[in-house]
Amino acid sequence: MERDGNASDHLPRQAVGIPQDELVAGPSGQPESIHPQALLAQVLERANLQRALKQVRQNKGAPGIDGMSVDELRFTGAAR
After folding, report:
1. Which pTM was predicted?
2. Are the C-beta atoms of 44 and 52 separated by less than 8 Å?
């Protein structure tokens, strides 16, 4: 490693990865891409949304960008 006298010369260099699609292992053990529509379908499954809501309530989550609190969801019909 070359040094030019900078303090940063003594810090380890971190590798910067390039963002990529998340991969899952297929039947052969080889990575396969998840189709975006299939992923969205999994995210929007009722059981998944209910688990997420429960976790947000347990964590006392703050309102999002829309300003809606978790308790207000009951009145929109979104969480039954």
Report:
1. 0.47
2. no
